[in-house]
Design goal:
Blueprint (H helix, E strand, L loop, with lengths): L1 H29 L5 H13 L5 E4 L2 H4 L11 E3 L7 H8 L8 E5 L2 H4 L20 H10 L1 H9 L9 H9 L18 H13 L19 H17 L2 E6 L8 H13 L3 E4 L20 H19 L3
Parallel strand pairs: 1-2, 1-3, 3-4, 4-5
Protein name: GDSL-like Lipase/Acylhydrolase family protein
Organism: Algibacter luteus
GO molecular function: hydrolase activity, acting on ester bonds
Length: about 325
């Protein structure tokens, strides 16, 4: 029995020492990676977040839809595929610079998604041992994750190791020339396939699942995240704009009006561009919810005029 306890103790010590050594090595590599969405884009964001005048946050519909190279202002597009408002709120909580313009993407269906739990922010776990603001913010919503990461340090790199090593050894672009915007260039075959989908299933353009839902309510957690963003912007005297980028599927007017009223009640600017394109142009789209680079450029120019007009930017 005594030997078993001693063996377990030795194994536990070896495990914890190994865990911390491996995590320490991964952190050193992590810090040097500035490409890819595994950790690189976030590291890039942290390297310049308090030096640029405009930041864009949101999902793939922010990442692929705002060509911030068109904007006559220093900016970075921190849109990230597969993320939502919790991820954006966590990053915004780290901002220190005063007087920035923040564009935060939100979709109608996300705002009213009762099942959303904020777990998208957990992809920032690797930053919790390097940034106190991220740790503090995440602790409010996922304290158990912070406790686990303090016990098992390598936990913060769960699912990220291969991406980190790949971008450390072979970065696929020069991050010094990267604005954060990732344009979509559908090839001819993809365009033809999508055009056939539009013609054969045109009802999808009119699809609006939310219209069938009575008594729509904003997810309380999303409301809390939006409140956190608003308060941080007030602290930094930053100008905040929520927006919805174009899509092919129509949104019911009742839903659009309810969303508009929600942001008006918060006294926050909201731009609804979901129906920006009145007619279908095959050159502007990759799929029903994502624009091609050509469509994104057209949209960005219109958004630029609106922002510069509303905020009197020279």
């Amino acid at each position: 029995m005594k030997k078993s306890i001693q063996l377990l103790l030795i194994l536990a010590i070896v495990f914890f020492v190994t865990d911390r050594l491996i995590c320490m090595c991964l952190k050193e590599i992590d810090k040097k990676v500035f490409t890819g969405q595994s950790v690189g884009k976030v590291n890039h964001f942290f390297s310049l977040k308090d030096s640029v005048n405009m930041l864009i946050f949101g999902s793939s519909r922010a990442n692929h839809h705002i060509d911030n190279t068109v904007l006559d202002i220093t900016s970075f597009n921190m849109g990230a595929d597969g993320t939502r408002i919790g991820y954006s709120a966590a990053l915004i909580s780290t901002l220190k610079k005063k007087g920035q313009i923040l564009l935060v993407h939100i979709d109608h269906e996300i705002l009213y998604d009762s099942e959303y739990d904020g777990s998208d922010m957990l992809s920032l776990m690797n930053m919790t041992q390097r940034n106190a603001d991220i740790t503090t913010f995440m602790y409010k919503f996922f304290p158990e994750e912070i406790y686990i990461s303090k016990t098992f340090n390598c936990y913060i790199y769960n699912g990220k190791v291969l991406g980190i090593l790949k971008n450390y050894v072979d970065p696929n672009y020069d991050y010094n020339r990267y604005s954060g915007y990732d344009p979509l260039f559908p090839n001819l075959e993809q365009r033809n396939i999508f055009n056939k989908m539009v013609k054969s299933d045109s009802l999808k353009l009119e699809q609006d699942d939310l219209a069938a839902v009575s008594d729509l309510e904003v997810n309380p957690l999303i409301n809390k995240f939006i409140g956190e963003i608003i308060e941080h912007c007030k602290t930094n005297n930053s100008r905040l704009v929520f927006f919805t980028s174009p899509k092919l599927r129509k949104i019911h007017n009742n839903v659009r009006n309810k969303t508009k009223q929600y942001f008006e009640s918060k006294n926050i600017s909201y731009y609804d561009y979901s129906e920006f394109f009145k007619e279908y142009n095959a050159d502007y789209w990759k799929d029903f919810t994502h624009m091609s680079a050509q469509g994104a450029t057209v949209f960005t120019k219109a958004l630029k005029e609106k922002i510069f007009e509303d905020h009197e930017i020279n």
